[in-house]
Amino acid sequence: MSRGGHRPVRMCAGCRTRRPKAELARLALDNRGVLCVDEKKIRPGRGVYVCPCSECLELAIKRKGLARGFRGRFRQGVPERVLSVFQEEKAWQK
To answer: Which residue of 9, 47, 80, 83 is surrounded by the most CB atoms within 10 Å?
Structure first.
């Protein structure tokens, strides 16, 4: 047995590939129901994980992955601040 411990795995809502949770960006809804990036991955409620690239975010919107992940509570468009975070792909890669 390895001593590395358990590493949680999540599925990207856009491309539907499974990756370690630490490699994905978590999206959540704030108190008003507006989509935001959960950088610390601690916001309460359901979250949707997406690869940290704008292509996967676009696929998640197109394929209704965000609506499915938030169980229908996501009906609004994506705010500009969320799009700007995903456009800066290099900020996610460490």
So the answer is: 47
DSSP characters over 44-91: SS-EEEE-SSHHHHHHHHHTTHHHHHTTT---S---HHHHHHHH-HHH
Task: Answer yes or no: is pLDDT of 79 > 80.
Answer: no
* Half-sphere exposure in the Cβ direction for 26 (13 Å, CA): 18
Please provide the CATH number assigned to the domain covering 9-92: 3.30.1230.10
- At residue 86, the pLDDT reads 77
* Residue with token string 């969320």: 82
As beta bridge partners, residue 42 has none
pLDDT higher than threshold 80 for residue 66? yes
Whether the full predicted model's pTM is greater than 0.85, yes or no, is: no
